[in-house]
Amino acid sequence: MILPDIAATEAVGARLAGIVRPGDVITLSGPLGAGKTSVARGLLAALGLAGEAPSPSFAIVQPYDLPEVRLPVWHVDLYRLDDPDEVDELGLEDERGDGLLLVEWPERAGEGAWPEALALTLWIEPDGARRLTVVVPEAWEARWPT
């Protein structure tokens, strides 16, 4: 799927907000500046977040809870992690049962992390548009495409 601008990238996130369920994981991969946080911002806005969501790059984990959003979300950016073992220290699996785990840079968690996740990858095209590819696991097949 080609996303011509930031509005189209955020719209992908907004559409995802209509199909997410408690316990879901969505991973966002791609190079710096590809639009991972834009997808996350669109999703969070559609879940009711007022104002712009900050990138969790420095905090690593940015939680959003009721009533701020209609479904609790843990927005995670693993870019600064050096070792997959550091992911366990974040306690992500303990929190995701009641909400959504939204993970940027999931490859930093090691191979095989979150095999049940809806995996989105964004690439920057030569003209500045974004190319989105999606790996849809079995648990998401009935809900995808949005």
From TrEMBL:
One of its GO terms (biological process) is tRNA threonylcarbamoyladenosine modification. It is found in: Cytoplasm. It comes from the Bacteria. InterPro entries: P-loop_NTPase (IPR027417), T6A_TsaE (IPR003442). GO terms for cellular component: cytoplasm. Keywords: ATP-binding, Cytoplasm, Magnesium, Metal-binding, Nucleotide-binding, tRNA processing. One of its GO terms (molecular function) is metal ion binding. The keyword Cell wall biogenesis/degradation does not apply. Its main location: cytoplasm. Belongs to the TsaE family. This is tRNA threonylcarbamoyladenosine biosynthesis protein TsaE. The lineage of its organism: Bacteria, Pseudomonadati, Pseudomonadota, Alphaproteobacteria, Sphingomonadales.
